Amino acid sequence: MDILFYMLTALAALAIVAVTAGIFYILIRESYPAIKKFGVIRFILAKDWDPYREVFGAATNLFGTAITTCLSLVISVPVALGIAIFVTEIAPDFLKGPIGAAIELLAAIPSIIYGFWGFFTLAPIMANHIEPFLMDTLGKVPVMGPLFQGTPMGIDLLTASLILSIMIIPFTASISRDAFNLTPEIVKESAYAVGATRWEVVKNVVIPYSRLGIFGGVALSLGRALGETMAVAFVLGNTHQITSSLFDTAATITVTLANEFTEAASKTYLASLFYLALLLFIISFAILALAKVFLIRYQKKNPGGH
Amino acid sequence: MERETRRKLQSAVALVLSTLAALFGLFWLVFILGSVLVHGMRALSPGFFLHDPTPAGIPGGGMRNAFVGQLLITFFATLIGVPVGILGGTFLAEYARGKRLAHYVSVLADIMVTVPTIVVGTFIYAVMVKPMGHFSGWAGAVALAVIMIPVVLRTTENMLTLVPWTLREAAFALGAPYYKVIIQVVYRGAITGIFTGVLLSIARVAGETAPLLFTSFNNTFFSGNMNGPMASLTVTIFQYAMGPYDDWHAQAWAAALVITFAILVVTVVGRMVIKLRYGKK
Question: Cβ–Cβ of B21/A86 closer than 8 Å?
């Protein structure tokens, strides 16, 4: 009887391994026609995405994914660190819990709500107020000017990245907060004792001490942002192009899949979409594994935390 | 400026910026929930829950089909995902505790928790929808179950690890075999945690859209047939939002309101239970 239960639980645990391996195998099998036709490097670098001529390349999708992900990190990481600092070092005790919990609520809102809200509420605000303002100010600065030129429509890379950044703030913030909390009180006290200001303690003691934890948190958010679909599907426009302006529409891997998967009529088209899914799976798997490595190393350094 | 003053000023500026960051985060939370509440309330009526959609472009109708579809898909996803997750977590926390294998599987589960859900959708499309030849509620349920399994597995593992080892030893001393110890002693000690974890994981998959797009697809008619395409609230929101009719947009807001607040309530209650039960260790 005990053996039976043992087998049952072992089988269930191995289901995870089987599913992971299964996803790899199935995605490779399904995208094989496209892999054979377009190769690997050629597919990644090709800018074409033409269902009529049946010529496909991943470059425009990878471009959209890379830009939205990077930009969302640029916005969210400083904010998330600020929140973590506020919650651990500044807020009075009775505010620490509630504010942390409220920020974490952002993570519980379904991603489709972000996209939906972004489409109907945020995009018009971006188009009418924020983007014209950015165009008149940052758009005139040399070097970075071209980023902020074009037609402010609200449906573009900038809006999509902003929505993504709001979505991932809670992940970076809560992991950084946990990491900050693990800094031994005595190390901080010592810094205060030699006359350091509060900011100097954070900058020179707390942040260096929890560096690995922060990296882990950022990498985890990066993995989230890469694979996010619905939050960007509404506001990115799904145009396959590589552009220099943040006010242009674009397409990410996820948005392309969401919009075109059920419409793919030909074998090559569908295989190319599976190929994109495979690329996304490999990239996010690698980044999330990296995040785990950081977090595990951090835990080993600080047993007692989680 | 004196060095002291400069350092103090620098510190003050940094602290103010951090406070602003916290306000920035709270601002979006209030903004999003506020918009959903204001727009959603306008379209909310009993008919919204009780009627099926009218033909496109004709005002009126509701989302009864999507509510039923969403409940069915989520229910079967739970039925498939939760037992597998709990048993798997049991294996890692009990039989394989401390073994290298357990460590690797649990890291893998952690990675799978965050893997893009749309990829799971394409996977299920290839293994279920294509061979069967049509979209189906079952495919949607399995896709959500695949997303659920790693979440439940990790929660179960954590909760079982919190049960003191001495409790098991006491049961062993009475001569109980390990499976009896697990079922009658360990599970009983961790039941609150596991149950809450399951609730949180249901709340998480209930808001998923991407994995349903190519599995359960959508259906404008009322259907209790898991073997055919099935409507869900989330996919319907996507379709209605992209459509041209004002009435569709209003209904999508109402659906957004219902699903957001249902999920937030479950999440908040779940987290409070966990905090009360395990907060002060």
Answer: yes
Domain spanning A2-301, CATH class: mainly alpha
Model pTM score: 0.92
Partners of A190 in the β-ladder: none
What ipTM goes with this model?
0.91
Domain boundaries, chain A: 2-301
- How many interchain CB pairs under 8 A, A with B? 270
Q: Report the alpha-carbon distance of residue B233 to residue A137 in Å, rounded.
A: 42
Give the closest of A6, A23, A27 to B95, CB-based. A6
H or E stretch covering B107: helix B100-114
Q: What CATH topology corresponds to B64-246? A: MetI-like fold (1.10.3720)
Please give the backbone phi and psi of residue A92, each rounded to the nearest 5 degrees, phi first.
-65, 155
Going from N- to C-terminal start, the domains of chain B cover 64-246
Given a cut of 70, whether residue B1 has pLDDT beyond it is: no
Q: What is the pLDDT of residues B138-150, one digit of tens each?
A: 999 999 999 999 9
Of B35, B153, B234, the CB nearest to A121: B35
Q: What is the pLDDT of residues B44-55, one digit of tens each?
A: 888 888 888 888
Which range has the top average pLDDT, A50-59, A204-213, B48-57, B256-265? B256-265
Can you tell me whether residue B116 is helix, strand or coil? coil
Number of H helices, E strands in chain A: 15, 2
How much is the average pLDDT of A34-39? 93
